[in-house]
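Q: Got one fold?
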Amino acid sequence: MDEASARHGDAAAVVAILLRERGGLAVLVIERARRDSDPWSGHWSLPGGRRHGDEPLFEAVCRETEEEVGLSPRGSELLGCLPAQAPGNRPEVLVLPFVFRWDGEAEPRAGPEVASLAWVSLADLRRTRTTLTIRIRNRERPMPAFADGRRTIWGFTYRVLEDLLRLLP
C-alpha cells in the first residue's frame, strides 16, 4: 500500500471498486442521495469521497466505503489501483480508484449519503454502452454512458469503469 500512496499522494479523494463473483463478475454502484451541497447529487457512482487531511489513501477508501455502504474492504483482497483522474466538474480534485475483490458474505446497505445501490454485472455494463444527451450547466451535451433503463452511469464513474473494463477479458 505504501507504493500506491507514494505514487498517488496528490489524490484528494478515493473511490472503491468492489468486485464480486456470483455467476459473473459484478461491481457495486451507488445512487447518491439528493443534497444541494453535493455536485454529484442523484448520480450513480462508486463508493468514496474526500480524504481527511493527510489521512492515508487506503484508510480513506476504507472509511468512505464503510460510511456509504456498510462494507469494510479491509479484509478483502486489494487488486490494485487504477490511474488517478479528476472529475470533469472538479478538475482540481484528483481521485484514486482502488480495486478490491469482495468475497464477504455481508450485503451492502445504503448509508445516509446513499439513496440506493446495486451490484451490476460487468457483462451488462458492456452491453449497455451508449451515448446520451446530458444537461450540464444549462447546456445539452452528448455523453458516453452505461444506461439500462434503471440507472445511467456517466461522467467520472463511466470513465473509471471503462478503465476497469479495458483491463479485464
The beta strands are 13-21, 25-32, 44-45, 48-50, 77-81, 95-101, 114-121, 129-136, 139-147, 152-154. The CA atoms of residues 76 and 104 lie 8 Å apart.
